[in-house]
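Hey, weird one. I pasted the TIR domain-containing protein sequence into the form twice and got a warning about non-standard characters only the second time. First submission, copied straight from the form history:
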Amino acid sequence: MLSLPLTSSSISRKKYDVFLSFRGEDTRKNFTGHLYEALKSSGIVTFRDDPKLEAGEEIAPELCKAIQQSWCSVIIFSKTYAFSGWCLEELAEIVQQKNANGHKVFPIFYDVDPSDLRNQKEKVEEAFAKHEERYKEDKDKIQKWRNALAEVAKIKGWHLHNGNEPEFVGDIVKKISAKLCQTYPIVRDELVGISLPLEELYSKINIGEDDVRIIGICGMSGIGKTTLAKLLFQILPNECFNFFNVHEGNAIISRRLSSEKVLVVLDDVDNLQHLKYLVGRRDWFSLGSRIIVTTRDEHLLRSYRIDDVYKPTTLNPNDALRLFNLKAFDGDTMSKYDFIELSEHVRYAGGLPLALEVLGSFLCGKDIVQWRRAIERIKEDSNKEILNTLRISLDGLEEKEKNIS
């Protein structure tokens, strides 16, 4: 089963997503060039060395630094890759980063047999004979290169031999993009307290199990159902389908998705018939598919006999205060004691994320008198539903302020 990546903003993204390692004279102007452009056009920050750097057998310091600053390396093993001491030195640095710092490695076997690389036979054997002749006094270097080549050749990668190159490149880009989404999910700083709910929801998805699973996310308005579903969609490799008409959706699912493992997210469902039209029977979906349904109506989910329900909870007092401060003070810092004291009244938002955002955004930039007036207005109506209370109270307060001005 896959493990959920950390979602804390403390995860810092590397300068480069991908470092390309390749033999320039073999693939720079064809396959590597096409792959580089495809990665770049997909928003994947990719380092490709400048031909001017390839002046000798020793790897340039700029390349060592680029490898260290990259999340992964994509290594294109071509027919003469092993003949280049430059490439082998680069490969050794990549393996060192892999073993020491968790650097990811993705090999591409471009018209070469991985077993020749692992066993160092055929052309590879010829290449190392030349290296050994050249570096007679440096046997450690040769052994380092041999070890690096054998280690990476054991990693499962992509094989291209007289295949459809554009389709091959597209598959590589798609898979690397999915891996990046899993490693660096888009979790912004203002999504306070999201990590634990996301982990709890992820545990219910059971990725890797060979079944069709339907999960409901149920809770009051503003508690974060849609936010959780969107984040899950970003983290998991997925195909996105948008259905604008429930009757058309029914036909598309039953006809097209029965042979594909998919992730489908249905947001804010409030009608059981819509759910039946869109999800239908489980045999519409290929094994391994996952369907996420968000709704305020738990009875709707139970009526459809879904597999599990996740109920997000409100924020704890510390996270609630932090989220409010982010919105009210445009950041985590506060300056005046009176404002700090008043911010403790966030309890009137009941720990509801959207309510805290509404209240904090409304008060941002306002003076202490306006703060006191807003909080008193909310306190007066505290027995009503939280989010409606905030919206009605703050809208009414704005009207009064307009009349005063």
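That's the output from the first submission. The warning seems to come from a hidden character in my clipboard, not from the data itself. The longest strand covers residues 70-77.
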